[in-house]
Amino acid sequence: MKIGIIVVLALFAGAFGAHFLLSDPGYVVINFRGYLVEMSVPVLVLLTAALFAVIWLVRKIIIAPRRIGEAAGRFRSARSGQKMTRGMIEVAEGHFARGERMLARAARTSDSPLFNYLQAARAAHLQGRNERRDDWLKLAYQEVPEAANAVLLTQAEFQLDQGQHEQALATLRRLDENSKDHGHALALMARLYFRLEDWSSLREILPRVKKHGQVKPETLTAWTIRIHQEQLDNAADGDAVLLAWKDVPKANRSDITLLTSYYEGLMRAGLHEKTEKELAAALKSNWRGPLVRLFGLVQGDDASKQLKRAEGWLTNHSEDPDLLLAAARLCLRNELWGKARSYLETVLSLRQSPEVFQEYGALLNQLGETDAAADAYRDGLGMVAGESLPAIPHLKAPQD
Q: 189-198 b/e with 16+ CB inside 10 Å = b?
């Protein structure tokens, strides 16, 4: 439409000009350095038009190779894009070997082969071809060295997927050397340390992981608790237990897991008096079953006083299985066999567990009821095994 309008306007202009030129063609004289050129106006117009046509043609000839190269490049890029798309479709459909070949061919003609090599590495990984996978990753790095972090992350994720934990850790550490503030790499490393139970290393990088915010707060809390639990559980003596507890953040000191590890550490170190006092204070402010059970295990200096305190709590917690078990254990320490039996049988009527059956079996054996003791032990083992067990040989009562 546009070209047609231009042609029509040109014809009108030509006809209009021809009308005047034919009636009076005009006369042009050019004198230059002694040369005299004479011509009519129509001839001058034709020569000027011819000159512009020659200039246009020469320009087109000069830029033709570049234009041809650009067109060829666009064609190759389009073909490469089609191959890459087709290769990704093949991989997505489970044809990993075919997809890998197509992605590799596309990389050879692509202006940015990084993505092709990474996808080819993924296809090789899905086939279990680890050496070829690493070769593709190496090519990706060689083609685009500035994408080193992306290549290393991809390699680490592949290694983690195949359970190659040590190799993945080495890759992530190398990435950490290249880029200290890479949030995703730190998150992967922290998860790997947690899986490997390398608590000291996890503790070291945890502040950096928190800074980047790529791990959920509840996960960070779980990791923090696990780190401090290990410190408390492995404390060698009372001073180490107290130091480890002091290191626990205030926000986590009410966690029942850490409290249990703390009090067990105190008892392990022989600090029973301190444990009894702190447990009593803790239960007064917040009644919790695991701590109640621990109170029954504390070896305080005055077992009778300790039992009296536990039985005092029964006024408000008469059907608490944890408190009843603690009272039974304290009765055993005080050699109150009948009362201990009463408490244990009440616990079994409320909530059965292997530890209750173990205590009950030991008491029955102490009382000389070996058949009943054997049955109690069998029931407890059955709960651990998840199925009923045959009767075990009768136990002999201890000799006086």
A: bbbbbbeeee
Instruction: Report how far residue 378's alpha carbon sits from residue 352's, in angstroms, rounded to the nearest whole number.
Output: 13
Residue pair 79/105 in contact by the 8 Å Cβ criterion:
no
pTM of the predicted model over 0.85: no
Are the C-beta atoms of residues 370 and 395 closer than 8 Å to each other?
yes
Structure tokens at 225: 């608790």
Of 146, 144, 125, residue with least CA distance to 134: 125
Question: In the predicted model, is pLDDT for residue 380 greater than 50?
Answer: yes
Q: Which residues of 350-375 are buried (b: 16+ CB within 10 A; e: fewer)?
A: eeeeeebbebbbbbbbbeebbebbbb
Poorest-confidence range of 64-78, 133-147, 228-242, 247-261? 64-78
3-state secondary structure of 37: strand
Per-residue pLDDT band for 147 (boundaries 50, 70, 90) equals: confident
The residue whose two tokens read 């009768």 is 394
**Residue 138 corresponds to which amino acid?**
K
Take residue 308 and report the two structure tokens written for it. 């009296």
In 3-state terms, what secondary structure has residue 35?
Answer: strand
**Distance of CA 255 to CAs 260, 268, 275, 296, Å?**
9, 20, 17, 20
